[in-house]
């Protein structure tokens, strides 16, 4: 199996070319950008970046300058294929979760190496689950520190932060304090399908707070209600709501007395 042996340079080049081929297809379909996920030691590029999973002793292992070579190969292939007007975003973990792994200082160096190839760098948590803070997480935006460090370094790319950005004041503060250029949000759009409209109009008082229950991440592959939202009853039921009620057959006048 591939994971039991060292991937060769020719295979790296083939993978990078395939990234570029797929990005070109999206560009031809009218997309203006692509997002390349190299976080959490999951995708191949993330495994190269991480000092936990990259144990090579050749030119692609060791210091971050070597571990970065394959991810940079991918970015360069996409850039050369799609041109300078096609935006490239990449997702990376701000550090590894254990001592001896990739450090934030490594990621700052990596961000500077990405200049000219990557337009937007999204800084994420060391692992998948912590990137989605739950309701007893003591920090509102626990991973903003990674974006702030890359911004402070002077790396010439757009820096994006994620995790915990539902409150508009929190978003505004991160931008105003120069800790990030872009705010990434997912659960805010689940609890508020019109989140973009609310943001544009500055209607923070109308935003339904995300409870960080993480039910939107699903409850297992065998559950018909695979993903739901505690504060948006419509979310996750689009495919099953027709089974939950019957269409009315007539109209009645009803008075509700009391509360």
Characterise the protein shown here:
- This protein has helices at residues 9-28, 44-49, 64-67, 69-82, 104-113, 144-153, 168-176, 187-191, 195-200; strands spanning 33-38, 87-93, 120-124, 158-161, 182-183.
- It has 9 helices and 5 strands.
- Helices cover 32% and strands 9% of the residues.
- The model has no long low-confidence stretch (mean pLDDT 92).
- It has a 5-stranded parallel beta sheet.
- It has 259 residues and is of the alpha/beta class.
Order of helices and strands: HEHHHEHEHEHEHH
- What is the helix fraction of residues, given as a range? 25-40%
> Major sheet: size, sense and barrel closure?
5 strands, parallel
Name the shape in a single word.
elongated
How many angstroms does the end-to-end distance come to? 64 Å
Query: Beta-sheet strand percentage?
Result: 5-15%
How many beta-strand runs?
A: 5
**How is the largest sheet built, in terms of strand order?**
1-2-3-4-5
Short structural description:
The chain is α/β, with parallel strands linked by helices and 259 residues long.
How is the secondary structure organized here?
Layout: H1 9-28, E1 33-38, H2 44-49, H3 64-67, H4 69-82, E2 87-93, H5 104-113, E3 120-124, H6 144-153, E4 158-161, H7 168-176, E5 182-183, H8 187-191, H9 195-200
Which terms summarize this structure?
alpha/beta; 9 helices; 5 strands; 9% strand
């Amino acid at each position: 199996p591939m994971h039991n042996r060292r991937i060769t340079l020719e295979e790296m080049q083939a993978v990078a070319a395939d990234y570029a081929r797929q990005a070109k297809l999206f560009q031809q379909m009218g997309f203006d950008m692509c997002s390349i996920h190299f976080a959490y030691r999951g995708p191949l590029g993330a495994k190269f970046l991480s000092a936990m999973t990259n144990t090579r002793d050749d030119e692609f292992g060791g210091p971050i300058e070597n571990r970065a070579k394959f991810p940079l190969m991918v970015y360069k292939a996409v850039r050369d294929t799609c041109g300078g007007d096609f935006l490239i975003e990449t997702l990376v973990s701000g550090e590894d979760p254990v001592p001896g792994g990739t450090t934030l200082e490594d990621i700052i160096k990596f961000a500077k190496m990405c200049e000219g190839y990557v337009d937007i760098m999204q800084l994420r948590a060391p692992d998948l689950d912590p990137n989605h803070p739950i309701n007893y997480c003591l920090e509102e935006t626990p991973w903003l520190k990674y974006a702030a460090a890359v911004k402070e370094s002077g790396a010439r790319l757009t820096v994006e932060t994620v995790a915990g950005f539902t409150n508009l004041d929190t978003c505004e503060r991160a931008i105003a304090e120069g800790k990030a250029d872009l705010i990434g949000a997912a659960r805010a759009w689940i609890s508020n399908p019109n989140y973009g409209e609310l943001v544009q109009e500055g209607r923070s008082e109308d935003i339904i707070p995300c409870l960080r229950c993480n039910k939107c991440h699903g409850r297992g592959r065998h559950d018909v209600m695979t993903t739901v939202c505690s504060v948006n009853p419509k979310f996750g039921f689009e495919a099953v709501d027709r089974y939950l009620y019957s269409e009315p057959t007539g109209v009645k006048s009803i008075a509700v007395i009391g509360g």
